């Protein structure tokens, strides 16, 4: 009987001790069993690291690495460096999986000879245990690279989260793809994987539980994170421009721009909720809009590495 190929599950760990055991249990109970679990403790200061060590002690297929805090991109990239699997999956340590997550995504790759498989997901609220599936999942079950990337960029029926997908590891290796060192690194990185993939297979069934909790990255917004959000937007334009394919995806970029501006303004508003610095609020909205427009300019010239933004976002100061 032929052994199924190895899947590497990469889990960056942060201060999520109240959620992490559920995450690990959902990985342990996967129906697809030929996997390795790589737990990257990125400087957590609660009991999360100890939970990872205890899990490793009772499982032969688990690797745990403890490192200083350098961010999600660094943790994912380290996981990629030591992964042995033919396929790669990412799981956030506060989320959890349907028991057929790996099995179903692997079956999709095989059935459609795809490089990436994608599933729908639930928004999960731990206090009430309510779950709601994302409602705008795509109707088709397979896409070529161009059509899938247009949807990923537009961020409507497909999204650039790293976590609700299964990737051929060769996509990372052959194209030298690593996660960008910034917040919202998914936006800057996952479209590159879709660009180089030949085919993407999709299921509308929700197989990933995206936990909504206080203390997550989006609930602790800062000026630096907002600037990184704009940089991730710029990195997308930068990549498409380098590949001389921007005109093909321009319509999708424009669609995403409208959403990006709304999201960015909500982040800025959230940043100012505890202050009355309305003058700086207006300045931050104005400057961030100008930075986004900079990356939309027809004469934009791509740069090496992560592009910087021309107009910064400032932390608000309380007037009292």
What this model shows, in words?
This protein folds into 2 domains: 7-211, Spore Coat Polysaccharide Biosynthesis Protein SpsA, Chain A (Alpha-Beta Complex), CATH 3.90.550; 221-296, no CATH class. The protein is an alpha/beta fold and 320 residues long. Helix 5 packs antiparallel against helix 7, helix 8 packs antiparallel against helix 9 (246-271) and helix 8 packs parallel to helix 10 (278-296). Helix content is 43%, strand content 19%. The radius of gyration is 20 Å and the shape is globular. The N and C termini lie far apart (72 Å).
Architecture per CATH nomenclature, i.e. the level-2 architecture of the largest domain: Alpha-Beta Complex
Q: What is the general shape?
A: globular
- The tally of structural domains comes to 2
Fraction of residues in H or I helices: 40-55%
**CATH homologous superfamily of the largest domain, by name?**
Spore Coat Polysaccharide Biosynthesis Protein SpsA, Chain A
- Euclidean distance between termini CA atoms: 72 Å
Radius of gyration: 20 Å
The beta-strand count equals 10
Order of helices and strands: EHEHEHEEHEEEHEHHEHHH
CATH class of the largest domain: Alpha Beta
Summarize the structure.
The protein is α/β, with parallel strands linked by helices and 320 residues long.
Key attributes of the depicted protein:
alpha/beta, Spore Coat Polysaccharide Biosynthesis Protein SpsA, Chain A, 2 domains, 43% helix, 320 residues, ten-stranded mixed β-sheet, 10 helices, 19% strand
